[in-house]
## 1
Amino acid sequence: MTTVPPPLPYRVADAWAETADTRSIELVPIGEELAPFSPGQFAMIYAFGVGEVPVSASALRGRHGGLVHTVRAVGAVSAALYRLRPGDSVGLSGPYGTGWDLEAAAGYDVLVVAGGIGLAPLRPVVHEVLDRPAEYGRLAILVGARTPADLVYREEIEGWRGPARVEVAVDRPGPGWQGAVGVVTTLLDRLDLRPDRTCALVCGPEVMMRHTARDLVTRGLVPHRVQVSLERNMHCATGHCGHCQLGPLLLCRDGPVVGYDRVADLLLVREL
């Protein structure tokens, strides 16, 4: 039995396509509002009559002042959320879990490495660093996707070029693709990385995070300055049911964002 508090009603203020199977939805409270979210924290979103799923916030303040979540249609609940249109309503509870430790990144170069829809939980980090450039060093953003059609936030990524170093790679290029081809870790060779002055934030498929984290440590980053965002079956969102347990960690409570030094011997040994 779930221990998640009853969700609060939220209305869809806006919804738009990111890719063929991914949409972003902006949610505004109908009445009572949830406490503020930090970059990397997640909400439990309830699709009435279907069920609920955990989704990290992909923007803390949208065009209408609401929370934005980016959802890929991969199951019954996420498909129901994908079909939402402005005016529809959902239930929302949260914020849950740990966010990206931006205090630890203050004064350091910030390296964002995202694979696929893993860019969604990292997008608020990019917003934060771009909004407060005096508090951080150089910003580099590495993005990987299966194909050009699978890239989320394409127009926004282009807007990040200039204030940030942005590199994008795809596994399978399509007609007219002029960018890099290959896994996202190959983009690390393009950077003038300063290991002793860099904090890395990584989100994507687990195999991608494993190789990225190991590569960064090999290049000289200390493990605790490499943060990863992990997902398991977040059922209760409060650390009581144990569905999201990873060794001694309950990821809905102790994560989803954790330092690589805490999980190198647990998760990033092999895929589970």
## 2
Amino acid sequence: MISLRPADQRGEVDIGWLNSQHTFSFGDYYDPQHMGFSALRVINDDLVTPGAGFSTHGHRDMEIISYVQSGSIAHKDSEGNIKVLSAGEFQLMSAGSGITHSEYNASQTEPLKFLQIWIQPNALGGTPGYQQKNFGQAEGLTTIASPYGENRGEKGGETGGEKGKEGGGFELKQDATLSQLILAPKSEQVYQIEAGRNIYVHHVAGQLSIEDNPLIAGDGAKITDMQAITFVNASDRQATSLIFNLP
């Protein structure tokens, strides 16, 4: 079954320096029909004005992923990480037993647009962690985060990910895989799904359809009880989506 989450039906918060579109209930936005999906708790589509941002605040027991679509993030945390994330980069901050951090638009002249994603871990506590990388723009599926990380083996396709690739991406404290899908114009991609797995698609850019369901930027889709889905890009432009393979 495929259940669509149209971009224009998301919750919205606009406080001047921040405009945020919430896929799931978050902060002052509450919708009992959209409280998360499996271990996926938050997808916030944030637009931050130049020089503004989130002052120092704390998290614990959450896997927090940021994906910069345009602009750059100035990041600083209590573990001593002082970083700048540029457009195209991903960051995974494992809050573990507790971490504080701040996130600001690193530019005084250009806006910042990024996705903030929260995934609930399958183990509480532990040492906080930080990972950052640009995974490039290769066509097809690229693993961004998985329980295995870059250096631990995973049989290709076991969780619906890239066929024939060992591991890949950040090490995530959950039985979940986040992949980036980039489809060239006039192309398609079949995605296999193991029994019992739940899939969430957040569409980032371009035009895409999933089993004849069209998606535009910001749209989402919950996918359950299916063995495979086919992504189709019938347009003349590249299309990009994030795919969450969840327990």
## 3
Amino acid sequence: MTPFHFTKHYETPAKAAAAAHHYGWLATHAKPLRQPALTVVGPTSLTFEHIDGRHAQKKDLLSLAALLGDAHGAAWASDLHAAQLDMPHEPRKDSLLPAFRSCREVALRNRLEKGFLPDTAALHAMLTLLERSADGPAAFYKDSNPRNFLITEDGTIFSVDTDDVTVAPFGYDLAKLITTLIMTHGPIDPPGIEAALNSYNHAAARHDAQLGATSRERLGDFLALHAVLTAPYAGRHGYHYGWLHQRQQIQGTS
């Protein structure tokens, strides 16, 4: 029998509250991003309506890219036009979207410590990429990996998991989707990545022309960052293709 609800549990009340605030912010400002109904907010849990759907696959990349572009453009028009990428964004007094760069600097240094970067020169290269990425209009990041989309039999797309939502440049969460699709299902041909970027830019530009300007070079920077940031998860969560496959794909399409 299909359950009617899904309950996600959190380690602390603060993490549950943050996820609930993120859910509400997305529902208000990123309306194209459809989410399951949030039915109960507990002290350390959130309960949602159950969605019977499959996770995203490579064949969904074009439609998901358009959805992300539309959602990012809508959020910029509604709220994030006032945000700065290097500053936390406070939509209201009891909620916060972390800044783009600071938490990722910490993560990249951790990757060096754990052996996912070969030396300090490689770390410096990644930090330089991160620094030059922190400009332009602000969108958001919500970890758009394939597991965080549910696609129903009739093609309706639901976005799930609001644990980690931050301010981010346009195109950054699209790069996370591409990276994790590659890690899950294998290489995506360069024309497929180009088509996804065009679809994303076209959807974002409908909200304001300046929002549809993510270049292939800039997307390549984001892909390189995600390759390092997601490297520890290879072999877990359905990521069957590890760092070597990822690096080869990025080098072949940058």
## 4
Amino acid sequence: MSTAEIVQRMEEITNHYIQELDQFSMEQLTRKPSENEWSLGQMYVHLINTALNMQLRNIELCRHQSANEPAEAGGKTEAGEAIFRSGSFPPVRIQVQTAIPDQPLTKQQIVEELNTVVRRMKEIEPLLEEISPLQTVQHARLGGLNAKEWFELVEMHYRHHLHQKERLKAYLESN
């Protein structure tokens, strides 16, 4: 998939996430199915924070590595190879040790920050061709990813969480 197609898919997925927000009150968006699970709002915050503070930030780290500087990370792990070969995460719940996202303050905050992610991707997309694929930054589970792979990972991550969104939506509709 080209980087332009990734941006287009991100716009589509983001619009879907934004449209889904209309169905829920802030109380519903912050309601957790259990103490160990995230609310729908926390899932949105997670997507935004991961994109802005990890995935897109790591593209900048790849971009600013000197051509003479050795890459920070080696190649991808077996899991990383499998995910990029298939173009998506496996359709299963993935439990990772990550900071518990804050609850969102408002729906408007969610919408603005989702749109910020898309805007940043549109700004970064034309720069990707200039970044050497040999410049990589380590992902804890997937191994060394280059700038284009980090870019693709944003869309894959948003798409993966559609499963969680549907599960949480079903919970909210039944309670």
